[in-house]
Amino acid sequence: MNSIAVKKERGLNNPIIAQRFMADPYAIEYEGTVYVYGSNDSGSLYKDENGNYYRNSYSNIKSINCISSDDMVNWTDHGIIQVASDDISGRDGIAKWASNSWAPAACYNTVTNPETGKEQLMFFLYFANSAANIGVLVSESPVGPWRDPLGKPMITRETPGCDGVEWLFDPAVLVDDNGDAYIYFGGGVPEGKQRAPGTARVAKLGKDMISIDGEAVKIDAPYIFEDSGINKIGDTYYYSYCTNWSKEAGDAMGIAQISYMTSKNPMGPFEYKGEIMQNPGQSEYFSQKAWGNNHHCILGFNGKYYMFYHTPQYEIDIDLKLEDVPDKCAYRTTYVDMVSVSADGALHVAKMTKNGTVAQLKDFNPFKETKAATFVWGEGVSTEPKNIANENRNTEMDMNLRLVDKQGWIGISNVDFSTESFKDITLKAASDTDCEVKFYIDEICEENILGKVNISKTGSTDNFSVFKGNIYMDCDDIKEVHDLFITLDCDTCGSVMVDSWMLA
Question: Where are the domains of the chain?
Answer without folding.
Answer: 7-348, 370-503
